[in-house]
Amino acid sequence: GETLQNTLSVQLQEKEKPVERLQYLENEQKKLIQKKEELGRRHAVPGDSDADGGTYHHHRLTAALRVQQIRTFLETAERLESGRLHLEQLAKKAGQLREKETGISDELKQLETEWRELEPRFGIPDLVAERANLRDGRPCPLCGALHHPYATGETAEETEQKSRRYRALSEMIQTLRLEQASLQSSLRLLEEQCDADRKTDAHDSAELDAELPQEWNLSAAMPDLAESLRNHLQEWEKRLEAIEKVEEESLRLQAELQTHEEEIRSLQETRKEAEHRAELTAQSLNESRNRLNNLNMRLQSTREELIGLLAPFGCPPEEAISLLRKRLK
Q1: Residue 114: pLDDT above 80?
Q2: Within the chain, where are the H helices?
């Protein structure tokens, strides 16, 4: 009976070990669940009531898409900003060309005025030499006239100087006209480029305005649009980094919870088996106790019967039993 009792005690102690471990894991599981819930509350995204792994994954994708979208917006804004600066440079260059063209035009007017005065005298080279010899009062070798409108009374040297001046003016005018035509061509190209750039910028600006979230209160026409988008990009990059950290922590907690749950299930099964074995042991102990009680009762009955049989010997039962044993030998 004592051995059976000891066996039952050992089994009960073995049963208590997984129970204690199970209680510890259940407490740890509660702590992990609370920690995960607190993590979800601290980093909850407005409009969401749950904070599980799937939700974090959704938020991470949303934030990543928004970061990529802002980067695209920023590229367009920087391109528009660069385009505006380029247009300003083109406009400045066009202004310089117009100013230069105006100067050339004014210079041409002056030179052409002087050139037109000399052109009737020196415009036909073959007549220049003959005109140099004309003198008023002397007959013209061609028509015999005595009065000559082109007879200036100047010397041949003075006439030659004016002729050289006429030729120089002609060359200068031709050079300036070529330069003026080149400037005008450059101006047309600049204006065409400016028009094309303005159309491109207007198209990009319209698309950007259509895509920019209204709650940001931004416009493609804003001079500081790129800087504002950089601030939004920095904000969303930080948000994405925070979401990724929370998601990583949530997944770690989820894995730890899953490990605890598996061990808890295993311990629960172990506890059920231990309880079943303890129940069987208790039943066996009760049966053994019943057999022991029956045996004790039978021994007591046999003892009483034996005492009755030994009573005629007139001595105590122990002595009577001893004498009986000697006789039996």
Answers
A1: yes
A2: 2-42, 53-122, 125-132, 156-211, 225-310, 317-328
SS3 sequence of 66-114: HHHHHHHHHHHHHHHHHHHHHHHHHHHHHHHHHHHHHHHHHHHHHHHHH
pTM comes to 0.49
Residue the block writes with tokens 């003892």? 303
Q: Rg of the Cα trace of the chain? A: 60
Task: For residues 230 and 78, give the distance between their C-alpha atoms in angstroms, rounded to a whole number.
Answer: 10
**CB-CB contact of 232 with 70 (8 Å):** yes
Q: What is the pLDDT of residue 172?
A: 92
- Annotate 269-302 with DSSP letters as a single string: HHHHHHHHHHHHHHHHHHHHHHHHHHHHHHHHHH
Contact between residue 63 and residue 247 where contact means Cβ atoms under 8 Å apart: no
Phi, psi at residue 150, to the nearest 5°? -90, 5
CA dihedral defined by 135, 136, 142, 143, rounded to 10 degrees?
180
Which two structure tokens, joined as six digits, stand for 248? 């990583």
